[in-house]
Amino acid sequence: MRKRNVASITLAAWMLAVSGLMSMLHIPDLKMFMATILVGFFIIVYIFHPVFSKPGYIRNIHRMAAVCTVLFGLVIVLRILELVSG
């Protein structure tokens, strides 16, 4: 298997594990789910990032990581605002 395939399967398994754990613990919070999914995505991108070569798909991974960073920041800001206001 190629690294891209393993990374996709790992991310899908991580998402299923997190959703299963959150459903068993009765946590229906979508923001928490997105935050944990994005943390898993960042870890997978860091682990599978090529060191000595620059394949063509790496540019798309950097763009996706940038978008996920913005989403993660948004989730954190919304969580902080929720704690401050309530």
What is the radius of gyration?
15 Å
Task: Please identify the structural class as seen in this structure.
Answer: mainly alpha
Largest sheet: none
Q: What share of residues is helical?
A: over 70%
The poorly predicted ranges are none
How far is it from the N-terminal to the C-terminal residue, by CA?
48 Å
Total helical segments = 3
Overall average pLDDT: 80
Q: What's the oligomerization state?
A: single chain
Element pattern in H and E: HHH
How many distinct beta strands? 0
Which outline best applies? flat
Q: In percent terms, what proportion of residues is strand? A: under 5%
Task: Tell me what you see in this structure.
It is a single chain. The chain has helices spanning 3-24, 30-48, 58-85. It has 86 residues and is mostly helical. Helix 1 packs antiparallel against helix 2 (30-48) and helix 2 runs antiparallel to helix 3 (58-85). The model has no long low-confidence stretch (mean pLDDT 80).
Summarize the structure.
The chain has three helices and no strands. It has 86 residues and is mainly α.
Could you list some keywords that capture this structure?
80% helix, 3 helices, 86 residues, flat
List the helices and strands and how they pair.
Blueprint: H1 3-24, H2 30-48, H3 58-85
Helix pairs in contact: 1-2, 2-3
